[in-house]
Amino acid sequence: MNRIIRSELLKVRSTSLWWLMLIGVLAFTAIAIAYNMLGSYVQLNPDSFGANAADMHVDKASIAANLYTSGQYFGTLLAMVFGILIFTNEFFHQTATATFLATPKRTRVVGGKLIVAILVGVVIALITTVLAVPSGLGFLASQHVDTFLGDGTVLKSIGLNWLAFAIWAVFGLGIGALLRSQILSVIVGLVAMLVGQTVIQIGLALLASYFHQDWLGKVSYWLPSGASSVMTSPAGAGGIAWWAGALTLLGYGVLAAVIGTLITRRRDIS
């Protein structure tokens, strides 16, 4: 297995994928930090925007957690894309046959790719954390607000944020194994995450309002992107506990990995 993992890491390092991914992570994280700082400033200074501070409840721990996990949305998207590419590159560059001839046990090949996908997902999470935490500390200090960096719920949110990146990378690998086509897999993954989630949320909100059924509006929290947000919120979201979001997202990741492995074992590679 060590040989397979080293081979997969070499494939990543020997292509332009790693530095393109790095540029994307840096750019999107910077944008997310600026956006979250603006939103946090509005929450912490409601008087400056014509709101009555006495009527607003500001959860400063949640603000801190949100700042420290800046970049999760686009970061997990990039982790998912990497998971897709690490599998579909074999078919795109027509190296799949050689890879599986060198290692006939396909489960071991998928396992090696899975481990590398998780490692890269964690590295992406590390980069976003290294950028977001100092920025968040500086912003909160400028607003004379406690940093909450020693708070257990905030630290938990940061840790679960790392888990979310790893799971999304696995989820992407599952999509790649299912579809094999690189272009189709990336399009399906991006549409599902960027467009599908939003459309479903809007549709469920409209249905919840029309039928006066609040539970319909909470269904979106059980989808991958919604579960990601729930698990990294100190108090959860939509009345759903953080651990429920974590288990839900983990379930999606495990399901994608299992399906991808089974399909790869049975499908004709040539």
Report a brief summary of the structure.
With 270 residues, the protein is mainly α. The protein has 11 helices and no strands. Helix 4 (72-92) packs parallel to helix 7.
Written account of the structure:
This protein is mainly α and 270 residues long. The protein has one domain. The protein has helices at 2-13, 17-44, 60-68, 72-92, 96-102, 106-142, 152-179, 182-211, 214-218, 224-231, 242-266. Helix 6 runs antiparallel to helix 7. The chain crosses the membrane at residues 16-38, 73-93, 114-140, 160-179, 186-211, 240-263. This is ABC transporter permease.
Number of domains: 1
DSSP helix fraction: over 70%
The N- to C-terminal Cα distance equals: 23 Å
Number of helices: 11
Shape descriptor reads globular
- The proportion of strand residues reads under 5%
Oligomer: single chain
Keywords:
270 residues, mainly alpha, globular, single chain, 11 helices
Secondary-structure blueprint:
Blueprint: H1 2-13, H2 17-44, H3 60-68, H4 72-92, H5 96-102, H6 106-142, H7 152-179, H8 182-211, H9 214-218, H10 224-231, H11 242-266
